[in-house]
Specification:
170 residues; alpha+beta; FAS1 domain; seven-stranded mixed sheet; disordered N terminus; Putative surface protein with fasciclin (FAS1) repeats; FAS1_domain; Adhesion/Biosynth-related; FAS1_dom_sf
Length: 170
């Protein structure tokens, strides 16, 4: 075998690293509205960079279930601050997989200042509870990226005051 052939074979046999969270979001057809929102809010770069993140990723159906016209209004330039807050509420600066969750409710600080969500393991899956008591089912968990993990959820998390799950959490 020639050196050139050996080099080509090694390149084919060497596993490539996973995509970034931003690339995973952009590549998933179920998350096209999230990708558009992250771009509009200027947050795509946040989940593309090196670091350790968890993204709780609402599907297009989750965004479609919002009050009619709300998603489109959030994309408007004059509402960028509100959109950014909403999306930062779906991001955590550490990696949390379903395996990491204890068998109880835990509080998780999001990238939105002083705003928490709660996570609860349920069987083999988990739910995410927002500040208003809304529960998002994780429909696909632990999608690995080179800079974190993504959990696909079935509703948009809404920030607010102290999560109603605080009493249940550690």
């Amino acid at each position: 075998m020639t050196l050139k052939a050996l080099g080509a074979e090694l390149c084919l046999a060497t596993p490539t690293s996973a995509a970034s969270l931003a690339e995973l979001v952009r590549a998933d057809a179920r998350l096209s509205l999230l990708a558009a929102a992250l771009d509009a809010a200027g947050l795509t770069g946040t989940i593309a960079q090196e670091g350790r993140f968890t993204v709780y990723a609402p599907t297009d159906d989750a965004f479609a279930a919002l009050r009619p016209g709300l998603f489109e209004a959030l994309l408007a330039a004059e509402n960028r601050a509100q959109l950014t807050e909403l999306l930062r509420y779906h991001l955590d600066d550490r990696v949390l997989t379903t395996r990491d969750l204890p068998n109880r409710v835990i509080r998780v600080q999001t990238l939105l200042d002083k705003s928490r969500i709660c996570l609860e393991r349920r069987g083999d899956g988990m739910v995410v509870i927002d500040a208003n008591g809304g529960m998002a089912q994780v429909t696909e968990a632990d999608i690995r990226a080179d800079n974190g993990v993504l959990h696909v959820i079935d509703r948009v998390l809404v920030p607010g005051g102290i999560p109603v799950c605080e009493d249940l959490a550690d």
